[in-house]
């Protein structure tokens, strides 16, 4: 599926936690419908303005009936600072959907997310639920969880871990996950967390999918800027991923 370029109107850009915002725009129905795990290149500044590159942001939620598309993102640089400055009625350039999304598999599944890595898991939960799966969500945060009500609305079970013990289990999200209870596990978050989740699953013979993150330039696989090492050589995160079977990296 070829990514499309379009300009959309911002509907809302709301704070969810410290430096975490949820941007919702009016989806252009003439462009391809996105799937969970895919991403867009977002740009809210001119071609001759800094930063040079657009920002890759994963799809958080998509509602074709309301024509709404949402992105959950962390403000941590010039590009995301400019995204954070957008208000209702402002315009935003989108290129996408890009990449390969999550396959929808299993009758009882677990989603394991860490921090802003929970972003692509909401749309995944919705698609899995629509397919008839029982969905369990495990999420880890440093201190302040966010978007829990949205996940609770589409998941059968939600369990939280925090580094500080402020909410839920005081410890790691991997402390809560028992892969043997599930047909499939999907994970996105810090590399160290995803590796542990993947290795836990593979040791028990449970299929696991990981959503990798890498710095991107084009987002279309042309520049090879997001190439990372796998068991069988280099893979392009934007073109070959960002979703991969865990065995590609950790088997």
TrEMBL record:
<feature type="binding site">
    <location>
        <begin position="79"/>
        <end position="80"/>
    </location>
    <ligand>
        <name>FAD</name>
    </ligand>
</feature>
<dbReference type="InterPro" id="IPR039261">
    <property type="entry name" value="FNR_nucleotide-bd"/>
</dbReference>
<keyword id="KW-0274">FAD</keyword>
<dbReference type="InterPro" id="IPR050353">
    <property type="entry name" value="PyrK_electron_transfer"/>
</dbReference>
<dbReference type="Pfam" id="PF10418">
    <property type="entry name" value="DHODB_Fe-S_bind"/>
</dbReference>
<feature type="domain" description="FAD-binding FR-type">
    <location>
        <begin position="3"/>
        <end position="104"/>
    </location>
</feature>
<keyword id="KW-0285">Flavoprotein</keyword>
<comment type="function">
    <text>Responsible for channeling the electrons from the oxidation of dihydroorotate from the FMN redox center in the PyrD type B subunit to the ultimate electron acceptor NAD(+).</text>
</comment>
<comment type="subunit">
    <text>Heterotetramer of 2 PyrK and 2 PyrD type B subunits.</text>
</comment>
<dbReference type="InterPro" id="IPR023455">
    <property type="entry name" value="Dihydroorotate_DHASE_ETsu"/>
</dbReference>
<keyword id="KW-0249">Electron transport</keyword>
<dbReference type="InterPro" id="IPR012165">
    <property type="entry name" value="Cyt_c3_hydrogenase_gsu"/>
</dbReference>
<keyword id="KW-0479">Metal-binding</keyword>
<keyword id="KW-0001">2Fe-2S</keyword>
<dbReference type="InterPro" id="IPR019480">
    <property type="entry name" value="Dihydroorotate_DH_Fe-S-bd"/>
</dbReference>
<feature type="binding site">
    <location>
        <position position="238"/>
    </location>
    <ligand>
        <name>[2Fe-2S] cluster</name>
    </ligand>
</feature>
<protein>
    <recommendedName>
        <fullName>Dihydroorotate dehydrogenase B (NAD(+)), electron transfer subunit</fullName>
    </recommendedName>
</protein>
<dbReference type="InterPro" id="IPR037117">
    <property type="entry name" value="Dihydroorotate_DH_ele_sf"/>
</dbReference>
<feature type="binding site">
    <location>
        <begin position="55"/>
        <end position="58"/>
    </location>
    <ligand>
        <name>FAD</name>
    </ligand>
</feature>
<keyword id="KW-0665">Pyrimidine biosynthesis</keyword>
<comment type="similarity">
    <text>Belongs to the PyrK family.</text>
</comment>
<feature type="binding site">
    <location>
        <position position="218"/>
    </location>
    <ligand>
        <name>[2Fe-2S] cluster</name>
    </ligand>
</feature>
<keyword id="KW-0813">Transport</keyword>
<keyword id="KW-0411">Iron-sulfur</keyword>
<feature type="binding site">
    <location>
        <position position="226"/>
    </location>
    <ligand>
        <name>[2Fe-2S] cluster</name>
    </ligand>
</feature>
<dbReference type="InterPro" id="IPR017927">
    <property type="entry name" value="FAD-bd_FR_type"/>
</dbReference>
<dbReference type="InterPro" id="IPR017938">
    <property type="entry name" value="Riboflavin_synthase-like_b-brl"/>
</dbReference>
<comment type="pathway">
    <text>Pyrimidine metabolism; UMP biosynthesis via de novo pathway; orotate from (S)-dihydroorotate (NAD(+) route): step 1/1.</text>
</comment>
<keyword id="KW-0408">Iron</keyword>
<feature type="binding site">
    <location>
        <position position="223"/>
    </location>
    <ligand>
        <name>[2Fe-2S] cluster</name>
    </ligand>
</feature>
């Amino acid at each position: 599926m070829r990514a499309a370029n379009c300009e959309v109107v911002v509907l809302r850009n709301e704070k969810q936690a410290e430096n975490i915002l949820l941007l919702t725009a009016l989806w252009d129905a003439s462009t391809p419908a996105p799937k969970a795990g895919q991403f867009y290149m977002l740009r809210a500044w001119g071609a001759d303005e800094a930063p040079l590159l657009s920002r890759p942001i994963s799809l958080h939620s998509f509602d074709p009936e309301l024509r709404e598309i949402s992105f959950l993102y962390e403000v941590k640089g010039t590009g995301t600072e400019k995204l954070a400055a957008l208000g209702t009625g402002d315009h935003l350039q989108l290129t996408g959907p890009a990449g390969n999304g999550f396959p929808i598999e299993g009758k009882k599944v677990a989603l394991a997310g860490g921090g802003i890595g929970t972003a692509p898991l909401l749309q995944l939960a919705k698609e899995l639920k629509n397919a008839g799966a029982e969905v369990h969500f495990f999420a880890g945060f440093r201190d302040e969880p966010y978007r829990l009500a949205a996940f609770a609305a589409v998941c059968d079970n939600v369990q939280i871990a925090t580094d500080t013990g402020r909410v839920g289990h005081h410890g790691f999200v991997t402390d809560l996950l028992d892969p043997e209870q599930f047909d499939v596990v999907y994970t996105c978050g810090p590399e160290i967390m995803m590796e542990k989740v993947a290795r836990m699953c593979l040791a028990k013979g449970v299929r696991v999918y990981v959503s990798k993150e890498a710095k991107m330039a084009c987002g279309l696989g042309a520049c090879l800027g997001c190439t990372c090492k796998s068991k069988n050589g280099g893979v392009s995160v934007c073109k070959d991923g960002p979703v991969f079977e865990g065995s590609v990296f950790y088997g």
